[in-house]
Every structure is written in C-alpha cells, then in structure tokens.
Amino acid sequence: MMRRARAGTVGAAALVVAASLALLPGCASDPAEGWSNRSSHPEQYRTVAVPIFENRTYERDISRNLTDAVIKEIQSSTPYRVTSQAKADTVLRGSIRQVTLRELSKSVATGLSEEMVMQVTVDYEWVDMRTGKPIVARQGFTGSGTFIASRPQAEPIDLGGFNVVRQMAVDIVASLQEDW
After folding, report:
1. Which helix (H) or strand (E) is 149 found in, with range?
2. Whole-angstrom Cα distance, residue 107 to residue 125?
3. How far apart are CA 25 and CA 161, in angstroms?
C-alpha cells in the first residue's frame, strides 16, 4: 500500500514539473526584454490571403503546388487564418521567377546523371492591406530539392519539385515572424 501511495506522489510531482516546463517563456522580440511568452508573429494581423503565385517559367504545376504548400504551412504553424483577399488583413503575393535543373553527380559506369537538384527562385511580398505597405519582401529567394534521376532508383523529377516546394513553403512562412 505504501508503494502505491509513493508512486502516486512521484507521478503527481512529475506532472507538476511537466506543466511548469510547458509554461516556460521564449525569446522576446526586443533583445533588451529577454524572454517572452508572446507569439513570434506580429499580433496586429489575424488573416492572410494567398493568391496563386505568378509563374514566369514553363513548369506548369509548380505555382499551384507552392501556393498550396504555403497555405498549409500558414495554417499549421502560424496564428493566422487564410481567407479571401476581400476579407484579409494581409496578402502574401509571390512570383516564381526561375526553375532550373542541375546535375550534382554522374555515374562513372554510364556517364548519365545520377543525382539532380531542382532549384526554384521566387520573389514574394507580404503586404498590409490597410496601409498597402510591405511587411516582408524578398527578391531572388532560392530553394532547392534533390532527386535521383538514374536507375536503379530512378525517382521522378516531380519528387525534386515536391521537395523544393515543401522546403520553400516552410522558409517563406518562417519569414513572416518578427525579427528577434
């Protein structure tokens, strides 16, 4: 009976410690302030519209895929709600400027490309709809995704596109945070 009571006390203590660790603060937006429990995203905005990224390349599905990935990343990792442009506090506009394929390695036996990288260059801006001023603007933002082009793996080029789109979405949405 004594062991059961002691186990209950240890379990309760562990629960209290875990709860207090969950409430620990994070970095403040101002280094002079030290730590803060506030969100790292600007709190004056609640909604964001994400129109389909403009595509200046011949890769036809990349703009739709990047837009979809950015929307999902905003929904999963920010406090913002994605809505139509008519109802939004902010709008995130982007343009895919360039898509290139580069060879990373060749097969010694066949001379064929083994590992390839798809590189995508994007310009984007996050604009406050009330003032019309950009909150964040990036020109020439580049991301890349690798894939194995030759046999025996022979991954499709779409895998490189998927990898670069997923990573770019994470990086673009991360740039919507306040500097700290």
Report:
1. none
2. 41
3. 37
Q: Token pair 């360039």 is at which residue?
A: 98
Residues in a beta bridge with 106: 113
Q: Is 53 exposed, middle or buried (0-12, 13-18, 19+ CB in 10 A)?
A: buried
What pLDDT is attached to residue 148?
72
For the chain, list the domains and their CATH numbers.
1-38 (no CATH), 42-174 (3.30.160.150)
At residue 19, the pLDDT reads 47
Nearest CA among 103, 85, 105, 91 for reference residue 137: 91
CA 86 from chain centre, in angstroms, equals 24
Tokens of 19: 């709860």
Whether 59 has a pLDDT exceeding 70, the answer reads yes
In this structure, are residues 168 and 120 in contact, taking their beta carbons and an 8 Å threshold? yes
Strand pairing of 81-82 and 54-55?
unpaired
- What percentage of the chain's residues is helix, strand, coil (to nearest 5)? 30, 35, 35
31 vs 78: which has the higher pLDDT: 78
CA dist., res. 30 & res. 21, Å (int): 23
pTM greater than 0.85 (yes/no)? no
